[in-house]
Specification:
The chain has 199 residues and is an all-alpha fold. It contains 6 helices and 2 strands. It has a two-stranded parallel sheet. The longest helix is centred in the first third of the chain and has 31 residues, at 29-59. This is DNA starvation/stationary phase protection protein. Pfam families: Ferritin (PF00210).
């Protein structure tokens, strides 16, 4: 077996990246491929979310460390499962999913997560904003795939799960009034700072 290296020795890809000349029964090929194309950014966003959650899991510190550390692992597993479902749906619809890191970085419209080792409140406040962006984009994708109720149903279910994960995060950031300690923050760093000042 050939040794895998980090050197750039690539030539032309072994397989084509062209769409298959088919899709699922009940959809014409153009519609099926358009639905699948709408899922590619969701695959990128969820892959990014899983990595971001794992980064927070490794870098969270403070008195509530163990609760937050252990809360994030099931969310990471759940998000990774969502990626797999969407990628397989793309393939079913006749479009090859791209899960490569370079494709994610090239296509994303968001910046890297901006919090390293930090207090639990800081990470949770930043993650709350991350979840908001992913959920809003998932809801937009639901509208975009309206011609395919099967894909729409998948995205609706995933959005519900993502909203529950965000609720778990937000529960740590709320006072008894229900207001978030990071309310009004416009970016992750601002949210993290607001959350740690209120503690």
């Amino acid at each position: 077996m050939a040794k895998k290296t980090t050197r750039s020795s690539r030539t032309a890809p072994v397989t084509s990246d062209a769409d298959a000349p088919l899709t699922v029964p009940g959809l014409d090929t153009t519609t099926g491929h358009a639905v699948a194309d709408a899922l590619q950014m969701r695959v990128h966003a969820l892959n990014d979310l899983a990595l971001t959650l794992k980064h927070a899991h490794w870098n969270v510190v403070g008195p509530h460390f163990i609760g937050v550390h252990e809360m994030l692992d099931p969310q990471i597993d759940g998000v990774r499962g969502m990626v797999d479902v969407l990628a397989e749906r793309m393939s079913t619809l006749g479009v090859p999913p791209n899960g490569l890191p370079g494709a994610l970085v090239a296509a994303r419209t968001w910046d890297d997560y901006d919090v390293d080792r930090a207090d639990t409140a800081a990470h949770l406040a930043a993650l709350d904003l991350v979840y908001t962006g992913v959920i809003e984009d998932h809801r937009a994708a639901i509208e975009a795939v309206g011609d395919d109720p099967v894909t729409e149903d998948i995205l609706i279910g995933q959005t519900g799960e993502l909203e529950q994960y965000q609720w778990f995060v937000r529960a740590h950031l709320q006072g008894t009034s229900g207001a978030l300690v990071s309310a009004g923050a416009e970016d992750e760093v601002g949210a993290a700072r607001k959350a740690t000042r209120k503690r």
